[in-house]
Amino acid sequence: MEKLKNYIHGEWVEGSGNGIPLYNAVTGEQVAVSDTEGLNFEQALDYGRTVGYKNLFSMTFYDRGEMLKKVALYLLERKKKYYELSYKTGATHADSWVDIEGGFGTFFTYSGLAKRMLPNTPFWVDGETQKISANGTFLGTHILTPSEGVSIQINAYNFPVWGMLEKLSTSLLAGVPSIVKPSPYGSYLTNAVFQDMIESGVLPEGALQLVCGEPGNILDYVQDGDSVLFTGSANTGRKLKSMPSIAGNAVRFNMEADSLNCSILGLDAKPGTPEFDLFIKEVRTEMTTKAGQKCTAIRRIIVPEHLIGEVQNALSKALDQTKIGNPLSRETRMGSLVGKQQYDEVVRKVNILKSETELVYDGKHELIDADYDNGAFMSPKLFLNDKPFEKNISHDVEAFGPVSTLMPYKDAEEAAALAKRGKGSLVGSIISHDEKFIAETSWKMASQHGRIFVLNRDNAKESTGHGSPLPTLMHGGPGRAGGGEEMGGLNGLHFFLQKTAIQGSPDVLTAITKVYQQGAEKKFSDKHPFQKYFEDVEVGDSLETAGRTVTDADIVNFSNVSWDHFYAHTDATSLTGTIFDKTVAHGYFILSAAAGLFVSGKKGPVIANYGLENCSFFKPVYAGDTITVYLTAKEKINRGVKGRNIPSGVVKWLVEVVNQREEVVCVATILTLVAKHSPFIDLNVKNVQKILGGLTETTSLNWGKMSPQQMIEHLEHGVLVSLGEPEADKCFTPEEQLEKWQDSLYNHRKMPKDFPAPFLAEDETLLELKHKNLEAAKQSFLDNLKRFSVYYKENPQAEHMNYVFGKLNKEMWELMHKKHFTHHFEQFGLI
Predict the structure, then answer these.
(1) Which UniProt keywords are present, listed alphabetically (predicted)?
(2) pLDDT (tens digit, 9 = 90+) per residue, 419-467?
(3) Each residue of 645-693: pLDDT tens digit?
């Protein structure tokens, strides 16, 4: 039987022992063997701390975000084989989707967050700068850098893919190398995904290692700077946390443990209401998804005492209708437990629950294409705790399978009290349409819950469900749930980052943080900052504007245009007892006037105003005052761009407005979208003519089969098609892919060298030559390029068909020609 290999020190290594046999949870057949015996764990940790840390730290947060996206895309293309393995763990298609594509989705989410919100530097400035001296020559701020160590991630058996990827999404983005230790059960699925992550070639050396089996003594070698993330039972987690190597070395430890999560049916949610039906559906889903093997599953069903019987009946009917069996069958809605060992453990816990509470539903389901003897199948089981404030077994014992307990309550006070008797939960839900009941119960139970999920008729269609942790929200909980936190958007990175206070002068803090600090030296030049591309803007680039004297007419006109007739701007007789001596200019007029002073009217790389932050007005501006503006590049933020947007970054500009006495009257930060340098040539005819000067009949190709004249006539034909001469009769790209192809015109990715034109046969020469020689072809091409420019000035709304990209307008044709010309000019080594 095949042994699963471990990935240690950059190599795939088999264990040297007998290992643990792994079985198909549906058929009982052996699938693989996991074995970690003989592995050098000390060497593995050292490799991660040195090679892995160095390689990840050298990347920026933005680059790591791009890395996550590339890995996720690579895995998504190979998802079919992961599903085939997932079925062997007993998971249905729906269960597998949550595990597999939910894991990929977490990578995509964190990639998006990084590219929108994190800097293109290996460190991250956290929070605002603090002025800690009277004159502002001594400042303080905080930066976050990757903790210098390795992260050991111990995952549970219930989510072999998501369990790995949700932890890696934050550790990799933070820049910390990781060693993944999945549960042996289902580890053959983790192993397959991990193999592809390594084979993708996207991850730097040392970033990831895999221990596919028992952990051995790996935790004996952790040291200061390392971290341990554990998902599993609360009992095991507490033992690990107290290990001398962890407790004695200040090793960061995060635990996400199983918990006795609850769902509360509101007092208003009587039979016949949408909320009652939603409650039954939600509880059934949480009892049967992954066969109840979820740390977020509903274990305690808290119901108004007068509705206990009706809930029991409705839930029993719903569970009766849940078809159990082979996950490969389309009829199956619930698969098996992950293995016989887990089955035996759940049975043991069920028997403990029976000692104090009544088993009121024990499904007698006939299996679809499976049998109870070979597979680890268990029917759903529902208990009733009629005195939940006296019988504590329901609040202490968790059967990690399709098992849950009904219990009654009288009022919101009792509902919240029962919810908290779980002694710390990952999630609790409230299903009600009574906002007062929801609010009162939520406040009272929040201290013992990591997440509170409210469901009713208003959000049911878009709800993600009680049991679904989301990348942008914290996953974890207090007490029994482990006291840990995972994901939660960018907050999930903080566990892996060291926070350091930085103190110094404005110039020093600017140099360290790459964010301009007020009081630091400004860099003035003759070139207007708004005429610089994103790559060329430097933090500290500044502009001092001319002055503008504010007049009474300005104040009156702005009042009329804006409809802002606040008395301080319009009524001099009402100013007694105010801070104003006379009618004052509007703050937003000062900001608008400042923009008028610092913007560049000439078209340039600045695309648009993106936003405004931290605008404050310090002194009034009256008619007769003269304002001057200092504009300074404060911070640059790289950003991912999708769809039909020009590749760009965000530049934050510090705007300081002073009066004639050099007193600061207004400070704001404006954000602009600034275009990045295009790698494609400009369509300027003189520029193209200069490039073509280097093309002769003997110029050799870097790829392809064209002659120089064929290439020129091919480009000329493209220009003529963009003029409708001739009008292309069809587009060869399928309609469903057309939008994606058109969007691609806007990005900065070059055309692939081996792209076969779909409108040409494989062995067909491009076109019959129509010009007598290369020079004549060049001249005709340049003449038609001039015509192109004139045509779209005279016909700005014109659209013409392209064989690949469909019907294109002026902007799209320009983008297409830029890419196309660049492609073929590079083919002949002209640029």
Answers:
(1) Hydrolase, Oxidoreductase
(2) 999 999 999 999 999 999 999 999 999 999 999 999 999 999 999 999 9
(3) 889 999 999 999 999 999 999 999 999 999 999 999 999 999 999 999 9
| Calpha distance 195→180 (Å, rounded) | 12
The model's confidence at residue 764, banded by pLDDT at 50, 70 and 90, is very low
Q: Do residue 146 and residue 268 come from a single domain? A: no
CA nearest to 518, candidates 145, 141, 126, 116:
141
Sheet arrangement for strand 11-13? 11-13, 6-8, 208-210, 178-181, 151-154, 227-232, 252-257
Rounded mean pLDDT, 455-484? 91
Average pLDDT in the chain: 92
Q: Which residues pair with 502 in a beta bridge?
A: 141
**218, 220, 227, 254 from 246: Cα distances, Å:** 11, 8, 9, 11
Query: Which of these three, 434, 465, 496, is where a domain ends?
Result: 465
pLDDT tens-digit profile of 556-612? Answer: 999 999 999 999 999 888 988 888 989 999 999 999 999 999 998 888 999 999 899
CATH number at 328 reads: 3.40.309.10
The reply to whether 582 and 614 lie within a common domain is yes
pLDDT in tens, 239-256: 888 899 998 888 999 998
**In this structure, are 335 and 286 located in the same domain?**
yes
Closest by CA position to 590, among listed 542, 622, 544? 622
Looking at the fold, whether 274 and 294 belong to one and the same domain comes out as yes
Sign of CA dihedral 232, 233, 236, 242: positive
Q: Which helix (H) or strand (E) holds 208?
A: strand 208-210
**Is the confidence at residue 762, as pLDDT, over 70?**
no
Residues 6+ apart with CB under 8 A from 359: 350, 353, 381, 382, 383
Residue 286 lies in a domain: yes
Candidates 256, 275, 286, 635; catalytic one: 256
| Within a domain: 80 | yes
Same domain, 603 and 722: no
Number of domains in the chain: 4
- The H-or-E segment that residue 163 falls in is helix 162-174
Domain that residue 392 falls in: 262-465
Q: Are the CB atoms for 145 and 10 separated by under 8 Å?
A: no
- Residues, the chain, total? 831
CATH number at residue 560: 3.10.129.10
Strand 208-210 and strand 178-181: the pairing is parallel
- C-alpha 802/C-alpha 733 separation (Å) is 10
Last residue of a domain, one of 465, 494, 514: 465
**Predicted TM-score (pTM) above 0.90:** no
For residues 542 and 629, membership in a common domain is answered with: yes
| DSSP string over 190-248 | HHHHHHHHHHTS-SPTTSEEE--S--TTGGGG--TT-EEEEEE-HHHHHHHHT-HHHHT
Could you tell me if 154 and 9 lie in one domain? Answer: yes
In a domain, 60, yes or no: yes
Q: Could you give phi then psi for residue 494, rounded to 5 degrees? A: -60, -30
pLDDT of 763 above 80:
no
Tens digits of residue pLDDT in 616-626: 999 999 999 99
Catalytic-residue membership of 727: no
Annotated catalytic residue 731: no
Of 43, 341, 48, 47, the residue nearest 217 (C-alpha): 43
| Domain annotation covers residue 492 | no
Distance CA(748)–CA(638), nearest Å, equals 14
Q: Point out the catalytic residue in the list 295, 398, 716, 731.
A: 295
Cα 541 to chain centroid distance, Å, stands at 32
Whether 367 and 324 have beta carbons less than 8 Å apart is answered as yes
Residues 199 and 111 in one domain: yes
187 confidence band (pLDDT: 50, 70, 90): very high
Provide the pLDDT for residue 729: 82
Angstrom CA distances, 560 to 400, 554, 569, 570, stand at: 68, 10, 11, 10
Amino acid 74: pLDDT: 96
